[in-house]
Every structure is written in C-alpha cells, then in structure tokens.
Design a protein that fits this description.
Number of strands: 35
Shape: elongated
Pfam family, one: PG_binding_4
Strand content: 25-35%
Protein name: YoaR-like putative peptidoglycan binding domain-containing protein
Distance between the termini: 137 Å
C-alpha cells in the first residue's frame, strides 16, 4: 500500500515537470503586464517592451513642502527584466511545488526587480537638494519711510541624500501608486518665528511709528518724526529669539530732520572769539556754556513713548545738561592758539552770486577749531550747497565746461583754504584741482569741491590746535590759520608746464550755454619746501594735470 502511494506521487511529479516546463504560470502580471503562459525569454522580451514607458516616466517626489519630479534614467534607475522574468517563471523543482503547479494556474502579481546605479542616484538627488534646500531665516522687522516692515521667518530644510536613495528606489518600484515619494529632509526652525514677529509688530513696531513724538525742554518743544524714529530704531533678537527694541540716540540726535528742532530748543556753547593783532592772537570774547541734549537723554525720553498711542500720550520732557565750550580764554593759549601760522587771499571778479556763495561758505568755516590729530572737512563744515543752506545758483565747471548750479564760486573759498593748508605745512588728506586751469588761481595750488564726490580735507599734524579765521567781501576772501608754527617757513616752487595740449573749439548747444575762452591743457608740479632755522628740511611734490579748456561759443 505504501509503495503504491510513493509510485503515485512520483508519477504526479514527473507529470508536473512535463506540464509546467519553464513557462510563467498563467495569470502572472508585472506592473499590469500579463506574462502568464510565456516562456522566460518571451516574458523578458514583453517586459522590455511594455515597461519601457513606465521606466522613463518622471517620478513624482516631495522635498519638504515642495513638489518636483526625478528623471529615473538620470537617477540610474531601471527595470531588470531578465531577473524579473526569471523570478516569475516557476522553476522550483521540489516535489511539493511541482505537484502543486498541476492543480493551480494562478501566478498572481509579481514585483519588478529594480536596478539602481547609486552614484547616479546621489548625483540626481544632490541636484534636487541644491534646488530645494533652504537656509533657515529668522523673522525680522525693519522700518522704511516711517512704516514698519516685517520679514517673515523661513524654516530651513536639508535633503537627506543617503536616506533618499532608498526612498527613490521604492518609489520607482511602486510607481503605480498615486502618492509621490516623500523624500526625507532635516528641518531647522527659526529662533525668531512667526508668532514672535506678530507680537513685536503688534506691541512695538507699529505703535513706535504710529505718530510723531513731541519732546519739551526749557519751555520749548521739538518733534521727533516717525521717519526719524524708523531710521534709528532697531528690533534685535535676544538669546531666546525675542525681539528687543533699541534706539540709537547718538544718530537720532544728529538726524537731519530733527537736528534743527533740537538746536532751536537748546543753546549750544559758544567758543571764545579770536582775532589777529599783527602776527599774534588775542581773545576778543570768552567762551560761554550752553545747554544740550545728550544721546542717552534723548533715548531715555523717546523710548517710553514709543509704545503709546495718540499725540497726547506721545509727549514728554527731555533732560538737558550743561555743555562747556571747546575753546575758552584760558584754554586758547594751552591749545597753542597763539600766532598766525599761514594766510592766503583769493581774489575774484565781482558778481552777486559770488558775493553770496563765497561769503556764506566763509561764514560757515570761520572759527573752526581743529584739534591735534583731527581731520577737517570742507564739505562737513560748509554742508550741502543748497538754497536752504544759504547758497544760490552760480557758475561751476561740469564735464569740462561752464554751467550753472547751486553754490557756484565756492571753489574760490576752497582754493583759499587749500593754500592756507599748504603754507601751514599740515597734511593733505583729500583734494582735487579744477579740470581745466582758471587764470586767477596759482598754477597747481588750487582746489575745487563737489558735494558727495570731492572734498577738501586735511589732518592737523602740528601737535597743537588750529583755528581757521575767514573774512570775505565782494572781490576777495581771506583764510588764515592760527595756532603754533611747526616750521619757520613754508615755500612754494612751481615747475614748468609739461605735456602741453592745445584746446579745441565747439558750439554750446545747451539752453543756459556759458561761453568760455580757450586755454591749453598741461601738467605742472609744485614743490612744498619746509624750512627751519634757514635750512631746507624736506620737500613734497603736488602734481596737477589740467585738461585743455575748449573754446565754447553761444548763439
């Protein structure tokens, strides 16, 4: 009986081998492609054809909150159709499997075998990371034209390339799924987040620039505008990311909009007035103290009012302190302001605009005290040449030709200051000559200035203080440096004109055309010679290049 059973099983095994051979069981599918009943080679051929489109279809992925696609071919992904067909073929020869195949024809779905070039996959994922990685950004608040502006925070994210390789392989194998592959990323939250930005905007920033602040001192008041507040108020995060307001009182004190109001509400100290009596300096009147607002005092007055709303609530007192004059009768001699160091007079033809502009510049410069080691600036002292600053339109040189602009004629004062500087022996820091030579000035010893582009500056390296005294009338301006001479004498030695170039001629087409006579261009060097005890100590060359002054005729 037992022998008969064994014989029967053996017969079934042989029959199973004959029946199934190397065919793929019927009903077997790979990604929806039916390969049942095909031989292994036939199945491979069919899969190569039918899966080609799927193998090339872009893979949908998400990187954090961004959607994108990956090119499977570029990422080194492919279907191994040979291995897939081999696995689908029921080639297992054990008796139970072979006999079972006689009574079952349902192969069912088979997952495709995926091939991957990991180097290519990492390259593709690195490119994806460059596209979607982002640096964490804290939220912040700035101010522009008196309004609070918020910069929303950004959560940082970095694609995990190594872990994404596996996710990409899985997505490719299961691409029939509608859901994109969620690639792993590392997220970094900002320290100053959206909630803190909203709080700071609501509690600090918007109220701070809602309406101007009014401050009072000594029965006088001045206004701190919302624009000025915005220019000097910052909100910076503390160690926990909380935004903390800070007002730069020093810059607010000098703000161009509110500085005139502060000056009108306070009284600056007045320096002692000096004048020359022959070659020696005498004090005409002593310095007097004044009252001033400090940067700290201004900050302390403004800050508590910034979070209040309404004009009445944004009004308060500001403290002042006594300010001593920089120069007094007693300190004048101590600072070395004892004698005339140098002086130069520049002459000019009488013209109403020259009288106004030269006189105004001289007025603003007069009494300037330059302490040892300090650098004096023409532009900082005189300010922008505007009508509001007391200047009018006059003739200037622009693009190698005469034209009209505010402050014309001021270069005459600059030339006088330059020569006083030259003969005082102090160190020039910045200067520039006119583009072409003007005959009323000494060759190579003249200067021009332009607001925002060219200044006249010198450093007081005498070891003693210098004060600049000026006087002007309708035809001349005199600039004198008083202090203590460092050298007995400073001489000027002009060299010959070289590299001479002839001028051209051209008509003036401008509406406000200004005629000009021709003059050659040339190079010239002036030596500054330092003398002490009758001996030459050193020389310094001042080199100037003048362009030709073309003749311009106006119809």
């Amino acid at each position: 009986m037992g022998g008969a059973a064994v014989l029967g099983a053996g017969a079934l095994y042989v029959a199973g081998l004959v029946f199934t051979g190397d065919e793929v069981p019927s009903g077997t599918t790979v990604r929806g492609v039916d390969i049942g009943g095909l031989s292994e080679s036939e199945a491979r051929t069919k899969l190569e054809k039918e899966l080609a489109a799927a193998a090339a279809a872009p893979l949908a992925v998400t990187v954090g909150d961004k959607k994108d696609t990956v090119d499977p071919t570029a990422a080194g992904l492919s279907f191994d159709t040979a291995e897939t067909a081999a696995r689908a073929t029921r080639s297992d020869k054990d008796p139970f499997t072979v006999i079972g195949n006689l009574f079952s024809s349902d192969g069912g779905p088979v997952e495709p075998v995926v091939g991957m070039d990991e180097d290519k996959a990492r390259t593709a994922l690195t490119a994806l990371a460059k596209k979607h990685d982002r640096t964490v950004r804290d939220g912040s608040i700035t101010f522009s034209q008196g309004e609070a502006k918020e910069v929303r925070p950004v959560t940082g994210q970095t694609l995990n390339v190594d872990d994404s390789v596996k996710a990409l392989r899985t997505s490719f194998a299961e691409a029939s799924s509608a859901a994109p592959a969620n690639l792993p990323v590392k997220k970094t939250e900002p320290k100053t987040g959206a909630e803190e930005i909203d709080r700071a905007m609501r509690e600090i920033a918007r109220p701070a620039v809602s309406t101007p602040v009014t401050l009072t001192t000594g029965g006088k008041e001045f206004t701190v505008t919302t624009g000025a507040i915005g220019r000097h108020l910052t909100l910076s995060p503390d160690s926990d990311g909380k935004l903390v307001p800070k007002l730069d009182g020093a810059k607010l004190l000098k703000d161009r909009v509110i500085a005139p109001g502060i000056a009108a509400a306070t009284n600056e100290p007045k320096d002692a007035v000096l004048r020359l009596n022959g070659e020696k300096v005498e004090v005409v009147s002593d310095g007097t103290p004044g009252r001033e607002i400090t940067a700290k005092g201004l900050t302390d007055a403004v800050m508590p009012l910034l979070t209040k709303e309404g004009a009445a609530a944004r009004k308060g007192p500001v403290a002042t302190v006594t300010a001593q004059p920089e120069l007094t009768r007693a300190s004048a001699a101590q600072l070395g302001l004892t004698e005339k160091v140098s002086s130069f007079t520049a002459t000019f033809e009488k013209a109403a605009y020259r009288t106004t502009n030269i006189g105004r510049a001289a007025e603003l410069i007069n009494g300037s005290t330059v302490m040892p080691g300090e650098t004096w600036s023409f532009n900082d002292t005189v300010g922008e040449r505007t009508k509001e600053n007391g200047f009018t339109d006059g003739i200037i040189i622009l693009n190698d030709k005469y034209t009209k602009a505010a402050g014309g004629g001021v270069s005459t004062v600059a030339t006088a200051v330059f020569n006083a500087m030259f003969f005082a022996g102090v160190k020039p820091v910045e200067y520039g000559a006119h583009s072409f030579y003007i005959e009323r000035y000494p060759e190579g010893r003249e200067a021009t200035v332009a607001w925002g582009s060219l200044d006249l500056r010198f450093k007081n390296d005498t070891g003693k203080a210098i004060q600049i005294l000026t006087s002007a009338d309708d035809t001349k301006v005199t600039v004198t440096f008083v202090g203590t001479k460092k050298y007995d004498e400073i001489k000027a030695e002009k060299g010959p004109r070289t590299n001479v170039k002839e001028p051209g001629a051209r008509p003036g087409a401008e509406k406000d055309c200004q005629p000009q006579t021709p003059l050659e261009g040339f190079d010239v060097t002036v030596q500054r010679i330092f003398m002490d005890n009758g001996q030459e100590v050193k020389r310094e060359p001042f080199k100037t290049r003048y362009t030709p002054r073309d003749e311009v005729t106006c119809d």
